[in-house]
Every structure is written in C-alpha cells, then in structure tokens.
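Researcher: Next sequence.
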Amino acid sequence: MSVVGIIFSNIHDKNVPDLTKSRTMASVPFGCRYRLIDFTLSNMVHSGINHVGVITHYNYQSLMDHLGSGKDWDLARRAGGIQILPPYITAFANPQNFLYSTRLEALKNIISFISGCTEDYVVLCDCDVISNIDLNEIIDYHIASHADATMMIKRMYLTSENANHVQTVKSNDDGRLTAVTEYTGRESGFSDINTNIWVMSRRFLESIVTEAIAYNYNSFIQDIVQKNIGVYNFRIYRHESYFATIDSMQTYYICSMDLLNERVRHGLFNVPGRPILTKVRNSPPTVYAEGADVRNSLVADGCIINGTVENSVLFRGVTVGRNTVIKNSILMQDTIVGDNVNLHAVITDKNAVIRDGRTLSGHETLPFYIGKFTQI
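Model: Next structure:
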C-alpha cells in the first residue's frame, strides 16, 4: 500500500485576511516557532507518506522559503518528496486560465499531477488545522470498510461565536455518511464537523475530478459528495484527540492561548514518535534580564526580556523593554516592544515595533492586531 498526500495551502486565506495579506494560510506562524503547514506535514510524514503535493494559489513565497527542499521533514528525496503545485501547471490542467476559489477547482487545476502519481491511495488535508493525528488509522479504516472515500470528523460544541465556516456531518449507525450541511449558527450544541481530511483511492479521485472537468462542477461537497451520497460509499472516521480549526482571528488567538494549557500542549507536541517538525533555525538562548518576570508563557529562542510577560506567546527574536507589561498577547518574530508599554490581548505580526509608553488593549473576541513591519 502506498499513499500520496495533497495539501491545500490557500483554501482558507479569506478567513484571516490580516494574517494572510502577504502569506498563505499554510505559512501563518503559530506556537512560537511553527507554521500551520507543519502540523499537516508532520502528520503525513509520521504516517509514512513521503510524497506530498502542496497546492498553491498566490502569496506563496514565504511558504517556499519555509519548506525549502523539505529536508526538515525528511522529504528531500529523488523520488517522491515534496512538490509545490502552483496554478497553471499545464494548459490541459487549467484550460480556462482562472485562479481557483474552491477545493474542487484546485483539484481540477492539478489533474495532471494526480494522473501522474503511482500511489494507491491519496490523503487530502487543509492547512487551517491544529492537530497531531496518526493518519494510518483512518487509512486502515478506509481500506477495511471498502469505502469509496472516508471523511475524518470531530465532535465539537458549536455556537454562533466559535463556529465560522463549519460544515456539520450526519451519519448512520454503520458509519456511512448521510448528510453534510453548512452550520447556520441558529442552534448551539454538540455536532460532528467536517475536518476536511479525506482518504480515497487515487483512481477514485482521478475519476471524480475528471467528471468535474467534464460537467464543470465547482464544489467538492455539493457537486460530488451531496449528489452521490446514495451512490458512493462515503464513510466517516471519528477523531478523538485535540483538534482545532483556525477560521478567524478570534480562533487563532484562542488556539494560541490553548497552548498555555499543559494538557493541550502535551497532546500536540509530546506524542511519542510523532513530534511536530518544522524548519530548523539556530538561535541564541533567550536573555532574561535582572528584574524580568515571566509567568505561564511560551518564549522561543533569541528573545530579550526586560519586563513582565504573563500568559503570552513570544516568537523568536522578540524584545521586551524595561517596565513593560505584556499579558494575554501573541508577539511574532522580531517584534520590538519599547519601555513602559502595556499590552493586553494584542497580536503583533513579524517585525512590528511598539514604541515607548504605549498602552494597547484588545479582547479575546477581538484581539488588537498590529501588521507586519508596522510601527505604532
């Protein structure tokens, strides 16, 4: 049995436009030193998938810089390895010359890649998820159940505040998919949600994408899944461990704050045999000056801390000035915070500068965001 992975790097960019203005969703920084694609890539690599295609759309320079040759994920290989799949691979793959906006259009755009693969099965994953998953479990279930396609689902408590862009799933007692609908937000409660992780045979994927090209289908869920629920054997596989989706600036903030919970952090990063891999960078240790006070925070290498940091996430190279208090905030790489500054529920992008004496405050439902290379 051989498996190829396909990763959608841009599908959800519009959900967090501030963070994806100059990068893809896949390359959004997360958790001190990672990018969102690291979770999906690591899940694939630890499941024995050593041929991965990453579908790109636009703004993927930072993604290419991060992935490089793929050696940090053991994907620098002569055969297989990691492949960046930009738009317009061939005229046949995209005869209309348009940039895709849906999952199915993205797959139509890479039909030549799919046809050229020799693997038996394919795993489709998005880049807006935070999880540590053994994909072998869903692959084995898919094969044993003789399914045409298997969707991974997660049971979560949904409200109109925490469930943007979510699809709820219904299934029968045998695990067969019976319905997929958009969550309206009118009702609160526990529901099974679509994680956008699919397993299917490569030949089945090729056949449905070829059909989509022939009939000009655009939506994977509406045109392929919902129209064929009674025709194909679509199955569900339930994921029980930690799983979070980044679908807004609010959920990005909440998921980052979740890392301060030891149980969540261990469930993501301390799973035996399944570490989250990322691009290796050699940085000096963080300097904690005399009088610095750091509590319940994640601090990466290369920082200089002179003030107080509490319940916060600091990426590499952050500088915190004297008499400065930072609480419940996320400071990305090379952010400089001056002296006598107070920050609460603030997210800074890379290379932001907050000058002396500033007081900035947001809320967990609407964190105060400072853009890349911005001085305030």
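Model: The chain has a mean pLDDT of 92. Residues 3-269 form a domain with the Spore Coat Polysaccharide Biosynthesis Protein SpsA; Chain A fold (CATH 3.90.550.10).
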